[in-house]
Recover the amino acids of this structure.
């Protein structure tokens, strides 16, 4: 069995391969957001909306869907790349989709894409809270 290594942030555990990918994306975009801020926002969105996403069946453990939309994620090992919350439950991938997309870290998802629409609703709800 493959051993996984996670980087722990407040209330969230990020697989090392995915952490490397996200750090590279943040560095490449020249955005002022720091990795700690990114993960804090991801943890907050998951805390507030993750259960709703999981209830909708969005509990993908791998990055297969992410790789379809973000070519730069091709090198991420999808067998081990996942995000876990503080209870070791998978974080819905749509929350990560919208965060990367809204920060301009990857090509835009289509406006009619179900994942994007749901994730955008979650982000708007988090901002309004």
């Amino acid at each position: 069995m493959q051993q996984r290594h996670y980087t722990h942030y407040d209330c969230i555990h990020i697989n090392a391969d995915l952490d490397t990918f996200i750090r590279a994306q943040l560095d490449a975009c020249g955005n002022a957001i720091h990795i700690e801020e990114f993960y804090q926002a991801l943890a907050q969105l998951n805390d507030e909306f993750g259960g709703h996403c999981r209830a909708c069946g969005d509990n993908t453990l791998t990055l297969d869907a992410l790789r379809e939309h973000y070519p730069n994620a091709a090198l991420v090992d999808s067998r081990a790349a996942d995000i876990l919350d503080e209870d070791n439950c998978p974080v819905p991938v749509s929350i990560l989709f919208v965060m990367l997309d809204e920060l301009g870290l990857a090509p835009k998802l289509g406006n009619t894409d179900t994942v994007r629409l749901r994730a955008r609703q979650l982000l708007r709800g988090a901002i309004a809270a």
Notes: Residues 35-55 form the longest helix (21 residues).
